[in-house]
Every structure is written in C-alpha cells, then in structure tokens.
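Below is how a single chain appears once it has passed through the pipeline. First comes the sequence as given, then the structure the pipeline wrote out for it. We keep one example in the README because the format questions we get most often are answered faster by looking than by reading.
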Amino acid sequence: MSKPVLLYYRLLSWQPENQALAAANFAVHELDNPDQDTDEILKGIQACCAPLGFYFGSGKMERCPNLRAIVTNTTGVPHIDMPAAAARDIAVFSLKDEQTFLDTITPTAEHTWGLLLALLRRTPWSFDHIKAGHWNRFEWGAPAMLSRLKLGIIGHGRLGRRVARYGAAFDMAVRYHDPFAEADGITERAERLEELVAWADVISLHVPALPETEDLISAEILSHFKPGSLFINTARAELVDEAALLAALETGHIAGYGADVLEGEFGLDFKAAEHPLVRHAQNHDNVLLTPHIAGSTHDAWRETQGRVIEMAIEHFKDWKT
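Resulting structure:
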C-alpha cells in the first residue's frame, strides 16, 4: 500500500529526525519553496507544508484536488485561508490551539528578555569597545536598574504572561494591555494602550499578526510612548509602523528598539542590508536586531516540527490508496 504524498519545502529546514519521521510515514516530494509549485506536482499531493511568507489561499487549494491536510509548525495561521480550507474539508495542522504544549516551549520569551537586557546595558556595543582595544566602564552606564523600571506588556497571552513573570522576578512594576485577557495577580491591567505606553519604561510586544492588528503600534501610539523608553518586538513586524518608529528613534523619543523581526523578511528577495532599520543600525547604537531567531533552539525546532508532523500522521492513519 502506497503512502500519502507530502509536499515539503526545503526552506523549512526541518530537523533531521523530523525529516526521517515524515519520510517513514509519507511519500515526501521536496521543492525549495512554493514558487516552484507546478500543477502536475500539486495534483498528486495529499498533504502540503505551508511556510510563512507564502499565502496558501483558495487558488492554490484549487490546484490541489486531492489535498487533505496542510501542515505548519506556526502558532498563527495568517498565511492560510482557513475558511477556504474548511469549505474543502482540508485539515490544517498548526500550533495555534496547542496551548498546553506551547507552555513548554519557552525560547521566544527567553530571547525577548535577552534583547531587553542587551539593549538596556548596551552589551553588543560595549563588546565592540573592548574589541577595539578599550576598557572604560564609565562610558557604558545603563540608565537604571531593572528594579527601578516599569515594564509594559502588549498582549497578555502565553508569551506576554511569561515575559511579565520574568519582569516580576526582576522586581519590575509590570502592567499589560490586552482587551481579551484577564489579570492574573502578577500584573496590573491598563485599559487603554495609550495609557500603558505612556507609563512604561520598557514596552514588549506579544500580539498575533492579524488584519486587525496591522500597524497596531502606529505613529499615534508611538507619540504616546514615554520619552526615552525602550521597545522590544519579538512578535511580527507587521504590527509596527516601522517608518514612524524610525523617526522616533532618530529624534530620541524612543531610546532603543530591540527586534527579532523586520518588515518584508519572508520574501525570497528580501535584502536585509537595504532595510531602513538595518541602515540606521549601521550608524547608531539604539537598534539591536536578530534574524528571527527567538524561537530558534534545536529542541524547540525538534518538538514543534514533530508535533504537527505527528498530527498529520494521525490524520492519515487509515489512509488507503
């Protein structure tokens, strides 16, 4: 009996054990990325991976007449037309509703805190100072102790709550804004976003990328940030008006921005060196960027990829040709 056919894209870089798991249970067809899709290939598949940056819409689903499952190890599915999939009885396997499992996956919150500390203490630039042959600590004083600073969390879901707990562990005053989340006894709730950003010395963003959250951090909201505050974004670039943010960084209204995301990053033709925030960072020490590595630990990759592959295996357990 033949196996169901899974279309896998190499840009996903699944861990070797997960590639082996998929190969043991599917006939895996590999392409570099969805731009290489052909009608002939899509007609023959029963399952398909869905990388971020490539919209899996009804048009592609029409080209996959035998498709029964879409697989993505993401916590959100803005890149998949969910109503179109439901209308075609195509199962979507993601981590979106796997909250108990995701509570054990912690690297994004950890990286958020790493960015916060590195930006506050100017760690990368002080290391550059040493590499240049200097050793003068008085150039590198941080503005304040963490215990004297106020932390504002935008989005009080799984990651926001964890980052808030980290803040409380450092004796920071912590508040959050999230119209859909109740207070948890650790943080105070700010009813209005403007109120939160005006209060906080450090803002950390933890909101899903949805049409209604695009440019949530607009020029208007940025104008309410406390002068001299720090802003951390390990969520998505689409949530922030980056042009307005850059202007606030240039004037010093926002003292520093630490981010793991950039607008346009998922495009195959994305050139980081041409991004305005990267160009700014080349000549300023108030922007710290990492290449979308917040969730990038080998164990997290192994477990999150494996989770959705196992879901797909279960879905096809009664597969018969």
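The longest strand covers residues 254-259.

See the next section for the split statistics.
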